[in-house]
Amino acid sequence: MKNLLTRTLTGIAYAALICVGIMWNSLSFFVVFSAATVLCLWEFYHLITTRKRTKINSIYNCFGGFLLFLSAYLYASGVCDYRIFFIYLVYTVIVLISELYEKQQDPINHAAYIFLGQTYIALPLALLNMIAFRGITSETPVYNPWLIFSLFVFLWVNDTGAYLVGMAFGKHPFFERISPQKSWEGFAGGLVFTVLSAFIFARFRTEIALCHWIGLSLPVVVFGALGDLAESLIKRTLGVKDSGCSLPGHGGYLDRFDSLLLAVYAMLFYMHLFITAS
Asked: Rounded to whole angstroms, how far apart are CA atoms 223 and 191?
């Protein structure tokens, strides 16, 4: 009971912080998600350092992830043009050159772990900016919190629906080798609940048609599930249950953002393919 209470309170605080960060304004969005980028990278590099015995400069490489998020924010908001990304390119070049002086036993693996963190965590979180400032009714970049908010709601509703339906009816494993507790019944239940939530968004946010709200929700569910499995694969490979212990009852920051990391691509692709500014 105590663990359930702890998990519930932590979940409420986490969800409240995310919602306030998204809905307040673009600056609060930047603060919350740039911090999330740094914290998730910190956990990832700490796991690699302790489990693979490969010393990674977490401070420097977390700063690299922050630079990518900052560059994407300034570009997506229209403050700077594409040349702002040259700052991040300088970081990547320095990483490669530094391998000449690090004296690592396996410099290829060392650099690969660094860039895995950047592409697996920093890149998708930076791409949130491309969703947040995507014009729906105008070509001019303007901060629109509703698409980012819907992305998180779809993921949360899917997780809750999958858990409830899976607990009640789950019999057929979804991906037994990596996550034996997940079931196809749970996946289907989460999908149904998420589509229902899309109807609610369509009722109150009419700038996007119902068919597109549903169209956004479907790939988010699929790729959210794959993102969760991807992190489970990493944890299983490293021999850990959670990415960290920073969030009581929930594990680490990366455990909370795992589904998001692939779902971002799904929403972004759908938006650019099917939703155009008028």
From this structure: 12
- Rounded Cα–Cα distance for residues 161 and 174 (Å): 15
Alpha helices in 53-144 (DSSP H): 58-76, 86-102, 107-117, 123-132
Identify the bridge partners of residue 125 per DSSP, sorted by sequence position: none
Determine whether 175 is exposed, middle or buried from the number of CB atoms within 10 Å of its CB (0-12, 13-18, 19+): middle
What is the Cα Rg of the chain in Å? 19
User: Which one-letter DSSP state was computed for residue 122?
Assistant: I
| CB-CB contact of 262 with 224 (8 Å) | yes
Cα torsion for 66, 71, 73, 74, to the nearest 10°?
A: 140
Which 3 state secondary structure label does DSSP give 127? Answer: helix
Rounded-to-integer distance, Cα 118 and Cα 124, Å: 9
pTM: predicted TM-score of the whole model, two decimal places: 0.92
Q: What's the CA gap between 183 and 175, in Å, rounded?
A: 8
**Does position 91 have pLDDT exceeding 80, yes or no?**
yes
What's residue 278's pLDDT?
41
Q: Which two tokens stand for residue 187?
A: 């996946």
Cβ neighbours of 126 (radius 10 Å): 27
Q: Which of 69, 30, 29, 242 has the alpha carbon at shortest distance from 149?
A: 29
